[in-house]
Amino acid sequence: MIEMYFKDSPKTTAKQWKQRVQFELQGADYNDLLVHKSHEGISLLPFYTSENKQFTYEVNAEPKAMISLYCSNTEQTLKRIDFWLSKNVNHFFITLHFEKNNWSEFFSQLPENGVYFIDIQLLDLSFLQKINELIQNCYRKIFLCNDCIHKFLKKGKWFQNQKSDLELVINNISDKNPVIFVDTTLYQNAGVGMIQQIAYGVSQAMEYFKNICNKFIINELKICFKVAVGDNFMFEISKMRAFRQVTESVFEKFGSNIKIFFITETSNRGLSILKSKYNENYVSLAYESAILGGSDFVIPKNSVIYKKNTLENETNSIEEIQKIIQNRKAAFLNGMYSFETISYEIAKKSLLLFQNIEKSGGLLEQVKNHTLQKKIKEKAQEEQILFEKQIEKMNIDFQCFASKEEWELYPFVKQKQEKTLVEPLIEKRLWEKIEKRQLKR
């Protein structure tokens, strides 16, 4: 869709522009032909004026590229950190695999010019206490990230139990760099809509915040959201801006010095096993959407079917992100009628949903009574139907699918049959049904 922007003029109103466009349509229906309505009820109009804008909200984030590392070998991880520091990339999201590693030596050897977000995958009391102690005594900029609710939603069960898991997270929030870390990527990858992603993400943060308020007095707190971004350019940009707007409006009421920031990665939801340029275009649009939407950190995307990107590919991804950062700024969109309007609509609906979730007992209560899972399934199914209708209209060369012989990773949903407390959220790509049908032929 081509979007037109018009400067305000006392001689031409929005109503007159619409009348002019309708005249040019020669009897075709304006709303059917030119107004695109998402399956969440947000309209994308052919043009915007000041009459559409209801609220002004500025986003001035200055994004940086971030490298994601899975640390199973501390020596190799330190080498990779040194390599990226030499390329002027100094922000790292490190997932620890804690078995048989000398973490005291690892933390002491982290280069001082790096900034490190340490993600704890496994909850273990002694391990958490050890890591927290190391961070307290380490003169590096380290943020400890631990989201047990994300793991609960993904696995359908707690590591120990709800009370113990939440206490482990809360009690091990670093006094040095206190962070509430909220991973919302599961929602988008499971088919959740924009409005739900924001409302569920803020509700997830609130589950931690309520526990912190009961136990600590914190003068300064950071809330870090990890968010998945797709290629639906205008809506994804608006989603990111609305996410920040809603989060700030909710937490500013608590009076604490709370800072909000976002780590973004490309969603798997729309990726395919096509060998064409489709995935490259998808990822590039996601990068741009994240940066213009106000992301603070952008992580490059790995392939769906290959275990590791080559260093060359990873370097190219970082260079692409850095190039977009140089040429695109979230501040460029401040005051633009289209993004202000769409962001406001998303924020308004998200805030209302968040308030309803809190009134009903909070996010975890909705998970326990399966309200959340039911709503997510409904929204994912709506999106799947719309996607398949779009694919039918496109001229896709299905011979371009990577064959099984080329896979290093199995690209479809794998579910273990195990007993859970609640139904887990399942990440599923939109292309999976189509790919499976074609591969059977």
Radius of gyration: 23 Å
Helix % is 40-55%
The computed structural class is alpha/beta
Strand segment tally: 13
**How many H/I helices?**
16
Low-confidence stretches: 1-9
- Biggest sheet overview: 5 strands, parallel
N-to-C CA distance = 35 Å
Mean pLDDT: 86
Pfam families: MM_CoA_mutase
Organism: Capnocytophaga stomatis
Protein name: Methylmalonyl-CoA mutase family protein
Domain Methylmalonyl-CoA mutase alpha/beta chain catalytic: 146-409
Quick recap of the structure?
With 441 residues, the chain is α/β, with parallel strands linked by helices. It is 47% helix and 13% strand.
Map the helices and strands.
Elements: E1 4-5, H1 14-24, H2 30-34, E2 36-37, E3 43-44, E4 47-48, E5 64-65, E6 67-71, H3 74-86, E7 91-96, H4 103-109, E8 115-120, H5 125-136, E9 141-145, H6 148-155, H7 162-171, E10 179-183, H8 185-189, H9 194-215, E11 220-229, H10 233-251, E12 257-266, H11 278-293, E13 297-298, H12 311-327, H13 337-359, H14 363-368, H15 371-393, H16 432-440
Parallel strand pairs: 1-4, 5-13, 6-7, 7-8, 8-9, 10-11, 11-12, 12-13
Antiparallel strand pairs: 2-3
